[in-house]
Specification:
The chain is α/β, with parallel strands linked by helices. It folds into 2 domains: about 140 residues, 3-Layer(aba) Sandwich (Rossmann fold); about 100 residues, Rossmann fold (3-Layer(aba) Sandwich). Helix content is about 50%, strand content about 10%.
């Protein structure tokens, strides 16, 4: 009986001593878990399959916000509206900007579609599609955790080293697959989510739509012609967005529509799969 009581006390201490953190999107969940390990309890705000552009938190998530120590923000659209509300609900919760020290690029627009953007919408929030940026994100996570929990700083530092090694390995695999490219360094996406990936590996991202706007018939013809001229071998779409227009172009050119989301938790495998597909690997 004494052993059971001691075990329960240890378990209770473990649960309540951990840092309680919230992340906006699934890739952050992977990064924070990798560095925080068993010292951090992490909750995900935007559930898999939902769009961070329009997401609204559930009541249960607001309860979690009220009890959290840290919120790791990354710059996705719903944060612009909700972060002030989260802070108002829990003034003791620190909001950590994981985009610190990252230079954001302009959101890639289709050559054929033009739309006015506000100050936030101009900048591409998908910073985690670049391994170089993920290294900076990881450093920001480490700094936040070691500041809040200095007694475990060495633990977080060791986890950071291990994860940075994985990021380097991911980058090497991506470069290996992309080195096989011969005809074109271009790829076509329905939603412009891969700008940082394209910049990192000197690729060109051709976009079918911007901010939810689908192409008109004339624009669709121009995009199809461009895809053919650029030797596009596949069109990438996301589960969060309709792929009807991507399928029209793909059917015309007899190329596949490949579903891949930058919101995946398996960050490394996801980027490697992206590179393999662009390179025409099966």
């Amino acid at each position: 009986m004494k052993k059971i009581i001691i075990l329960l006390l240890l378990l209770t201490t473990y649960i309540f001593s951990n840092i309680k953190a919230i992340v906006s999107i699934a890739p952050e969940l992977t990064f924070v878990k990798a560095i925080g390990g068993n010292k951090v309890n992490v909750s995900l705000m935007v559930q898999i399959g939902s769009s961070p552009h329009t997401y609204e938190p559930k009541p249960s998530q607001m309860v979690a916000i009220a009890k959290s120590d840290l919120y790791f923000a990354i710059g996705v659209e719903f944060e612009h509206v909700w972060l002030p509300k989260f802070h108002s609900l829990n003034k003791n919760m620190q909001i950590i900007n994981l985009a610190n020290n990252i230079t954001k690029i302009e959101m890639k627009q289709s050559h054929h579609i033009h739309k006015a953007h506000d100050e936030h919408d101009n900048k591409d929030p998908h910073i985690w599609t670049s391994p170089t940026n993920v290294k900076i994100i990881s450093q920001n996570i480490y700094k936040a955790l070691s500041t809040v929990d200095p007694s475990n700083a060495i633990y977080y530092k060791n986890n950071l080293k291990l994860f940075l090694s994985k990021v380097d390995n991911t980058d090497k695999k991506i470069r290996k697959y992309l080195s096989a490219l011969k005809n074109s360094n271009n790829f076509m996406v329905f939603h412009p989510s891969w700008g940082y990936f394209a910049k990192e590996y000197k690729l060109k991202q051709i976009t079918v739509e911007v901010e939810g706007k689908s192409p008109k018939p004339r624009e669709l013809v121009m995009l199809t012609r461009e895809a053919k001229n650029e030797n596009i071998s596949a069109i990438f779409t996301q589960a969060e967005f309709s792929d009807a227009f991507a399928k029209i172009i793909a059917n015309e050119l007899h190329i596949p529509v490949v579903k891949i989301t930058p919101m995946a938790t398996n960050w490394s495998e996801n980027l490697i799969f992206m590179a393999k597909t662009i390179a025409g690997e099966k």
